[in-house]
Amino acid sequence: MSTNGVFVPAQGIAAKDTDYRVTACVDRADGGDHVVRHAFTMAKALAAPVTLFQVLDGPAGPATCPDPIEWDLRRHEARRSLGRLAEVPGDEPRLADIRLAQGQVGEEICRFTREQPSGLLVLGTRGSDDPKGQGIGGTILNVLHGASGSVLLVPSSSLATPDAAYRHILVPVDGSAWAESVIPLAARLAKANDAELLLAHVVPGPELTEARPYEAADLELRRQVVERNARAARAYLDRLRNAVAALDLRVRLLLVQGDDVRATLGRLICNEHADLVVLSARGHGLGTHADMPYGSVTGYLVAHCPTPILIVRTPDAPPVPATHAHSQDLRLPDLASA
Q: What range defines the domain where residue 171 resides?
């Protein structure tokens, strides 16, 4: 658990920073409508402009450019297609910015994120390299490993509406400062969408050396450890709820036990009908592995969860514990640092 038993806001830019931008990566394979809807919902909550970004796949570089006429026709068609998606909903109609690139999709997306001072990347998990929507394709893996900043992954099965995409926002917490650092962002999204904030913790079963069959004393010891950890987890979740009490949010605590934390969390997300999962790329498991872009829980959910997942990357240095949080203190995580 974190110091003082309270969540820690991620260090980062203020929401009013004019450089902050939400970028929707539109794939020609699925049209990109559901990705754009999520990008608009995020942008409205974060008071950020939107960019629609599409990569026209093919060889990159001036020495390998396609025929100029063919390339011009492809760009014109792409801009016309994106233009139909670019009208930002709201009281004052405006158009999202449109950007095109040419090359390998994953590489160009990563390059684009590195050129942005700060921002959130939104892309679908079903693309041209995963036409059947089974698992995640190579593009997603490349982006998770190479993109700068945080990523919202939107499954093709997601049916977010333009005006209110999220009603139940689930945040998995494991007691680490990394996991807690996403709570201010999740709270802000919940506030903007009038959503219920679900703080979830899975109590894993303790491992006992299995040199021989378990005896009655072994099973009793295991039961006592589970009960002790459940009590500690309940107190931990209560402190997190108290920390966001001043934000006037609907907060519900979810405490479950499961030997496989990843699978248990996946089932919990589905059973609670969560519309969005917000989690840190890091947790207890990555505390000493700074070279890894995300942990095993994140990797499992990306591959198996049908719910949109916002993976928040925080700076390499551990977040500084905070003793309280108020709505005016909510800051976006440092999306330019990974």
A: 3-329
| Tokens encoding 160 | 């977010």
Per cent of the chain over pLDDT 90 is 31
Question: Does the residue 225 lie in any domain?
Answer: yes
Residue 335 lies in a domain: no
What is the Cα–Cα distance from 172 to 183, expressed in whole angstroms? 10
Q: What average pLDDT does the segment 238-242 reach?
A: 94
The pTM is what?
A: 0.80
Q: CATH no. for residue 23? A: 3.40.50.12370
Does 146 map to a domain?
yes
List the structure tokens of 35: 């990705």
Q: What is the DSSP letter of 244?
A: T
Q: How far apart are CA 231 and CA 305, in angstroms?
A: 28
Inter-helix orientation angle 138-146/105-115, to 10°: 30
Residue 118: which pLDDT band, with cuts at 50, 70 and 90? Answer: confident
Q: What is the pLDDT of residues 280-337, one digit of tens each?
A: 987 665 554 555 567 788 888 988 888 999 999 865 544 443 333 333 333 333 333 2
3-class secondary-structure state, position 245: helix
**171 Cβ contact list (under 8 Å, min separation 6):** 179, 182, 183, 186, 197, 198, 199, 200, 277, 278, 279
Residue 62 forms part of a structural domain: yes
Q: Which two tokens stand for residue 219?
A: 């099973």
Q: How many domains does the chain have?
A: 1
- In 3D space, the residue among 165, 169, 153 whose CA is nearest the CA of residue 269 turns out to be 169
